[in-house]
Design goal:
homotetramer; five-stranded antiparallel sheet; about 20% helix; elongated; Thiol Ester Dehydrase, Chain A; 8 strands; alpha+beta
Chain lengths: ~140, ~140, ~140, ~140
């Protein structure tokens, strides 16, 4: 499977009042929610979201998150969050780009990294378990 | 001024119920709040927190945040967040270490980057304005 | 104008991971966000949302919120929030009903009350200002 | 046992930046967190907080929350939340008063209601289970 065919997803959010701070922009911490909604849309596409992860015996905690905010988002603005899986072998890495839904202007870039944790043994796996390959339709 | 004397601050938080997710750990997005409380304690020490920033004519938006979560935090756990300013000339960079308040075990590492924005001109400054040097007690 | 014709709005939310607590249900405090999204959809219908309120010289703070939660909502559940304005003369009262979007089962009931505050005088008005009647298409 | 001797607790919170909205006041939905921190401090006093509740086989979901906000709280303001148990037989009712920590000015009043749910049977109890009486030091 070429990296080109790794799953992607796109969601649109209208910035709600409760996410805007007194500087009239989205408070930087709220972006973690936007990323999560896009990430879950992506994981839904491969039928491997939180519920299925748990049923498979693995938790996939986020162990790293990085966000760069070159431009702020404002109250009522419609923003598009595009999530794209870029790594899956040793760890699950997802890249995100947030743009203005109307103009396409780039606002924010981010990535998250998750690793598989065996829920019974409470141990981090050295690499992704076969179930992820299966969900991705890739031979391990 | 040696980097040794740049401001530092330390706060302790007891993980509240509403920050814990269904995996029984602090949801990764909530750490942005913990960092902010420590950052504000640090900025209070140099009398240059949000109010004073605004009065000085500058906003200091967070333009980058990176968090690494090697170990989770749990409901009721007392965690210590230590913030340390590490850059101030071109941008304001603060490093954070989160540890268990009782054992000192390292849980999380993070940094944030802020830049000065002239609120009238709505323009990002190429470097920190004199007011920051003044607050830090450093000749620009 | 009969009360029947007061504005209503309906939104659908898919419960995100970050709103679910360790009891595997939506944490009760997050409902304030759901109500707000529905309330803003309602206020958009009469072109009197936060921006227009501010431009009209009035803030409309929420001075009361009551929520009853007979049934919990779960991760991934699609819930419908229906908001209906029920008072507008002395105060702006909105009633909410949250149901499961698929089955129609009733989950939550709530109301919020807002009052007009003159932003210049920083004073609460004894009754709604003419602008609200105008937006509602009602003679004051 | 007279109502006078039911448990009480008091906490102080310094309003953080991330709880303030663009009207420069605490967004009304964030108060649910403040109430919870005070409620947990109260439940800690009788050694019957979330963990002990779970171990006792009962969940105690909040089934009602009402908040009245006569006065707003502002960034950096130190507010005191006082929680007082007022009912425990059929349901667990807690009343809250939020005041300015410095002046004692009353800002907010609230109450929450919780009921016991048998976690195995997934059924609401018609009245509080013996464990609550025991924790309160009252003969059922």
């Amino acid at each position: 499977m070429s990296p080109m065919t790794l799953p992607e997803a796109e969601i649109v959010i209208e910035v709600p009042f409760h996410d805007v701070d007194l500087m009239d922009v989205v408070w930087h911490g709220h972006y973690a929610k936007y990323l999560e909604i896009a990430r879950c849309a992506l994981l839904d596409k491969i039928a491997y979201n939180y519920r299925e992860m748990r049923e498979s015996g693995f938790a996939w905690p986020v162990i790293e998150m990085k966000i760069r905010y070159p431009k702020p988002a404002h109250l009522g603005q419609r923003i598009k969050v595009r999530a794209r899986m870029t790594e899956y072998e040793v760890r699950l890495k997802i890249n995100y780009v947030i743009t203005d839904a109307a103009t396409g202007e780039r606002l924010t870039k981010a990535h998250t990294v998750q690793v598989a944790v065996d829920m019974k043994a409470q141990e981090m796996l050295p690499g992704s378990p076969p179930i992820l390959y299966q969900k991705l339709g890739i031979a391990p």
